[in-house]
Every structure is written in C-alpha cells, then in structure tokens.
Amino acid sequence: MAGTDPASRSSCSAASGAGRPNRKPWAERQPRSCRTSACAGRSTPSATTCGWLLDHFWWGSVFLLNVPVALVALAAVAALLPESRSARPGRVDPLGILSSSAGLTALVSGLIRAGDRGWDDAAALALLAGGVLGLGAVVLRERRTDAPLVDPSLFRSRAFTGGTAVAAVVTAALAGVLFAVPQYLQGVLDADALGTGLRLLPLIGGLLVGAQGSDRLARRGSVRVRVTAGCLVLAAGLAAAATTGADSGYGFAACWLALTGIGLGASLPAAMDAAIGVLSDEGSGVGSAVVQALRQVGAALGVAVLGSLLASLYRTGVDTDALPPAAAEQARAGLPGGAAVARELGAPALLQSARDAFVHGMDVAFWVAAGAAAACALLAAALLPRPGDGAAEERAAESPHDVPATR
Fold it and tell me: Measuring CA to CA, how many Å separate 388 from each of 26, 70, 215, 391, 394?
C-alpha cells in the first residue's frame, strides 16, 4: 500500500532546485512539491492488483509488483533529478546507525511479543527495557559526538520540529489503519483479497480529496490552519471508526474510511511541506531524509503499538473455554485462527465471539489513534507558522542550522 502515502510528494521538493537559495515567501514554497494526485492515484490499481494476485498466486507475489515500479523510479531519478552536493560534507556515523537500529528493533519486537504473549511476559519486558535504554543511550551519545547521525540544529526550527512530529504520528495512525482494516474486511465482513482491495478505495479517494483541497488552500490559508484542520478531520474519522460494531456493515466502514482518508490527505503532505519548506535547497535533501526516516519509525511503532493493543484485547476477549487446548491456542492467536477453528468445528458461537473480540480490540486501537491525531492538531496549532509568520519562517530558512552538512 505504498501508493496510499500522500506525503511522498513532499520528498520530491528537495530536488526541485538543488543548489539555489530558498528565498521564496512561505506560501509560495508549498506548491513546489510533486502533485499528490499522482502518488495517491497510483494506489488505486495497486490495491486491487494486490488483491487479485493474492487470490490467484502465492502471497509473495505482491512484492513482485514493486519491482517494475522501482526500476522505472531508478530510471527517472537518473534522468530527471539534478545532482547536488553539500558544501560541507560530514562523516558517516556507523555506530549511531547500528545502535539506533538495534534499539528500535528491540523496542518494536518487545511490543509485538507483548501483544502475542501478554504484557507480563518476561522476554517482552526485557526487550522493551533494552530498547528504551538503548535508544536513550543513543540520544545521549549523539548529543556529544562531533558527527551526529541527525543534526540537532534542524530541530531549532519550530516549523521543522512540528511538521516532522505531526508527520510521524499521522503516519503511525495510517499504519495502524492499514494493519487492522484489511483483517476486519476479511475476517468480519467475509471479503476476499480482491474484495478487500476494492473496499479500501474510499480511503484512497479520501486521500485525493483531502490533498487537493489542502493544495487549493495553500495560498489562502496558513500551513498551521491546513495541518490542524486535517488532523481534526483525521481524528473525527478514527473516532467514527472506533464506534464500529461486528454487525455495522461495509456502508458505515466506507464512510469512516473516506473521512479518515480526507484527514490524511489534508494533514500529512502539508505537515511535511511545513518541515521541509523552512530548509534551504542545499539542506532540503538531508531534512527530507530525516523526516522520512522518522516517519518510517512512526509507521513501525504504530503497527507495533496499535497491533499489540488489538491482539491483547482479542486474546482476552475471545471465548475458548469449551475448546481443547490446541484448538483454543489457535483460536486465541488471532481472528483468522479463530474463524478457522470455528468453521472446522462447526461452532458459530465461537466465530461470533472471535469477531466481537476483534472488533472490540480494533475500536480501542482506533480510539487511541484518534487521540493521537487530536494531539497532533494541538501540536500543529502550537508550533506551525501562523498567518503572517512568513517573514519569520523565511529568516529561519536562511539560518545556518537549515543548511546542515550531510548529517
């Protein structure tokens, strides 16, 4: 579902004028990005094609779909993007890369294991503690090293800090949605793989509507207003999703999918534009890389946190008291396992219990995601540029910290 990412447009702006000083007024920097419709529209065939492949071939075939896309992208990069080099190249920090990767791996693994085995599992708690301590040590080391993995001066800009934080949290919410909704469509509404892809189209349509609406407001409203409004719409869509019942039906799901998509399309590209827009063209490549890396961290944590919460509530909610131990363990492993055991044993009560437990866990996860989106709206209102702040942001774009080396 890479095509559902409207924020991929913002990373294109780094290549739109490498080497030239960024002196444009704030409102004129936003349209430098590639058109969102090209990125979001790409997901319409990918969602349905992946479903068709899963229905007719083995599950790994969906990854082959990205091979021709990657080849075309490589050719386009080689032919179209201008070369740019930093005037002050920095050093690579291999220890920072390895230690931060190890810390994130331990943290995500601990969250996933806690969802599967319970929050009192000793190994899960050890992984969580190790991940938190490891990442804390990385932060302390990076603050003292001469060549940090991420230039801390980037975060002196309120717009960069706010835009990056909003983009990371909104991406986490999107990842949680894309983790839970396909399972809901298949396990509760009995859609096949192709039908699941088709039923996700309201989300993609909402992305298009929200992104286009945000673009049209770019010259008339501040980025603060656009991101705040988008996050509030996203929170409303997720809150509506959190009221889903096992018998709600697809019509209701299509409505909150569309509303969620509108909020994502309105907030995510604008937040990334706010972060990258305060950087000079020389520093925008590094800044864009930092934003994208933190978004990927947000996506991993979003799936781990929301997925573990859903799995924990499902395991405690499904009724397996009357099942043999092996069948009970399979049913508690997840909704697909519960549905398979119910159909094998001819136990409609177990199937209903599994669906009810899954929907309850999904609702709680969506309430958490809605709260995160609402917090992003407050963050955007506090940190992103207000109307009339263009001069201040233009001065920020000229400051030395917005032209980092290669850190």
Answer: 9, 41, 19, 7, 11
Q: Check: CB of residue 262 under 8 Å from CB of residue 210.
A: yes
Share of the chain above pLDDT 70, in %: 78
In SS3 terms, the chain reads as CHHHCCCHHHHHHHHCCCCCCCCCCHHHHHHHCCCHHHHHHCHHHHHHHHHHHHHHCCCCHHHHCHHHHHHHHHHHHHHHCCCCCCCCCCCCCHHHHHHHHHHHHHHHHHHHHHHHHCCCCHHHHHHHHHHHHHHHHHHHHHHHCCCCCCCHHHHHCHHHHHHHHHHHHHHHHHHHHHHHHHHHHHHCCCCCHHHHHHHCHHHHHHHHHHHHHHHHCCCCCCHHHHHHHHHHHHHHHHHHHCCCCCCCCHHHHHHHHHHHHHHHHHHHHHHHHHHHHCCCHHHHHHHHHHHHHHHHHHHHHHHHHHHHHHHHHHHHHCCCCCCCHHHHHHHHCCHHHHHHHHHHHCCHHHHHHHHHHHHHHHHHHHHHHHHHHHHHHHHHHHHCCCCCCHHHHHHHHCCHHHCCCCC
Q: Once rounded to an integer, what is the mean pLDDT over residues 343-348?
A: 89
Q: Between 240 and 275, whose confidence is greater?
A: 240
Report the distance separating Cα 298 and Cα 295, nearest Å.
5
> Residue 280 in contact with residue 226, Cβ under 8 Å?
no
| Global pTM value | 0.78
Find, among 216, 220, 165, the residue nearest to 375 by Cα: 165
Q: Are 30 and 163 in contact (CB under 8 A)?
A: no
Question: Using CA atoms, how far apart are residues 341 and 88, in angstroms rounded to an integer?
Answer: 62
For residue range 320-332, list pLDDT tens digits in order: 888 888 888 888 8
Give 172-193 pLDDT, tens digit per residue. 998 989 899 999 999 999 988 8
pLDDT grade, residue 63 (50/70/90)?
confident
End-to-end CA distance of the chain: 30
